[in-house]
Amino acid sequence: MKITGNICDIKIQEIEDPLMKISSREEMNMTIYDIAKLAGVSASTVSRVINNKAGIKESTRQKVKALLKEYNYTPDENARGLVNKNTKLIGIMLADIRSAHHTDLTYVVEKYLRQKGYCGIILNAGSETEEMEEAVRLLEKRRVDGMLVVGSVFQNERVKNAISEHFSKIPVVFANGEFDLPNVYSVLVDECGGVERCVDLLVQKQKGNIAFIGTLNSPSSQAKLKGFKRAMTRYGKSEESLVILDGQPSKESGYQMTQKLLEQYSEIQGVIYSEDLIAAGGMRAFWEAGVKIPDEMAIIGIDNTIYGELSCPQFTSLDNKMTDMASEAARILVDAVEGRKNPRKIMLFSDIIEREST
Amino acid sequence: MKITGNICDIKIQEIEDPLMKISSREEMNMTIYDIAKLAGVSASTVSRVINNKAGIKESTRQKVKALLKEYNYTPDENARGLVNKNTKLIGIMLADIRSAHHTDLTYVVEKYLRQKGYCGIILNAGSETEEMEEAVRLLEKRRVDGMLVVGSVFQNERVKNAISEHFSKIPVVFANGEFDLPNVYSVLVDECGGVERCVDLLVQKQKGNIAFIGTLNSPSSQAKLKGFKRAMTRYGKSEESLVILDGQPSKESGYQMTQKLLEQYSEIQGVIYSEDLIAAGGMRAFWEAGVKIPDEMAIIGIDNTIYGELSCPQFTSLDNKMTDMASEAARILVDAVEGRKNPRKIMLFSDIIEREST
DNA sequence: TTGTACGCGTTATCAG
DNA sequence: CTGATAACGCGTACAA
Prior knowledge:
The structure is a homodimer. By secondary structure, chain A is α/β, with parallel strands linked by helices. Chain A has helices at residues 32-39, 43-50, 58-70, 77-84, 100-115, 129-141, 157-166, 191-204, 219-234, 251-264, 276-289, 306-310, 322-337, and strands at residues 5-7, 10-12, 89-94, 119-124, 146-150, 172-175, 184-189, 210-214, 243-246, 270-273, 298-302, 316-319, 345-348, 351-353. In chain A, helix 1 (32-39) packs across helix 3 (58-70), helix 6 runs parallel beside helix 7 (157-166) and helix 8 (191-204) runs parallel beside helix 9. The two termini of chain A are 51 Å apart. Chains A and B meet through helix 4, helix 5, strand 4, helix 6 and helix 8 of A and helix 4, helix 5, strand 4, helix 6 and helix 8 of B.
């Protein structure tokens, strides 16, 4: 990977730098002792100034402050944490930050945490329980003050055990899932009811023959599926007659499942996809097949991500309130870390964002 | 936000928990001293066992190890860092993790760092220089071992100064930008040349009247624009005659700019968008206007995100190698932190991923 | 092979 | 108002 030359006015140089090998030690970070010596006071006085404690002569305070600024001293948050018994670190565990709804959530959480003086450590813990346990262990080593678990895929015994082993004493907020543990809070969304309302919407649009396509393995997916079944039986369908296609959380899977649907289930008038991403894959299949949306087929996704808005035509999506969930979860977590009380479990209500596909 | 009831079989409870108010102190995290006492050895022996140092009687090693496991002791990484003078923390600064190409990059980086024993602290530093400086300060407080700066928006004097003030002694890798500072590495992509090749492709497809739509303010955008101008003049166009529409990095802006294009520049046969997201907005405008793609209009985006694949038709995109950049940047950073040498500046070469829009 | 003593950078307690 | 001193959890010379 060595390129030498001049490409588009950007000069490429190679400098095999001996990056400050010796010089680095000479100018370490300032400590309160250094400042104290400079100011002719004790370290504790400097500490007091830094933390704005009362009972310091104004003149010394100013003198110290000046030095602090001059040498632009920055306190070592880790050393601070050692004595304060907190790290101001929050662990954020999710399967994969690349899934659009988690990205949005993470953004909101990180912003909030930072505003409250905390730093988020985001861990892509994957979808295998072993990786998840590993992530929990890692966060324990970091002595995070609290932990946010995002996504119902984490709702399994292994993770629950890992948490009760390693994190029985710090607050944990589970977004979109729950553990029956004394220190775990839950923020949930009524995806079940939301999907019921999706069915209602389609029925109302004269699209009563509805298929459900998507993943079925996570608790969240199960809730969605339950909503689907419940609503469909409410409209007189037998559970055995329902068209439910099990797939992966990818656009490719959405595409394939939808092709299968078109081949095998000609009576279907509408589809509910368990995720927008899968729906986006489905849109492609309909587009290729020349199926008119919404006239010949109505579409609803879930998550209300940007995929629905980018699609042509834009598709309706069940907004499962990921950003609301993010701010609630972050708030509850910080509250818990700082000793403020909150309900152990709250639920948010999803909304259908109707667009051109219904 | 209090809900009581039973919704879709999910029982909602309200427990105004007094979350372990008293009990929490009783069972703090184990320290090496606790283990030492239990094992009847000194703390240093325990430390040696933990760090697999040689020169420990096998029997005591086993005894200690057993205790370690029994009480599932986990070393305090922060305390460890205090004496080791490292934190195994890496700061990752980007404008907004929600932009798809940054999300992918972040994922790759986080995975790599973790595999190498580091933890990433991701900061959404926004696009205002003040926020950026704030982020730098924050990372200094955390005493990160290294820092990754992602995105050419950070290439400004304020950030450069902040880095030389607060981070003159630790390695910094700048992905998609550069600072002339001794401790800063750069990983660049030849977006300029890439866009030139995009123009070449369109010309080759008999779509020589090309417009450029997108953001123009970041160094990265400037490089893209330069490539556009260079190639177009190469094909005999005068620079003044070029159609260049300045917009925002959003689908809405892409939509509006494209509408404007359709209204005002009927001779245009192809468009290069500075970002996939903007291109996606543009696709909508073409779709609404009934413009046939690629017959009546050829489209190329930049970033090679999922947006291009989801679009119907899928659009061609310049792959600016964000994930390669991510792994290179992460590798170089860890290398630098651990004292291994690397070129100070490397460049990756973009690739055109051709799809249905050209 | 193991223990003692010290230091990392900070805050808190207590004495002055 | 200010300064010693101890402590946080850990690693490491140095001594035994």
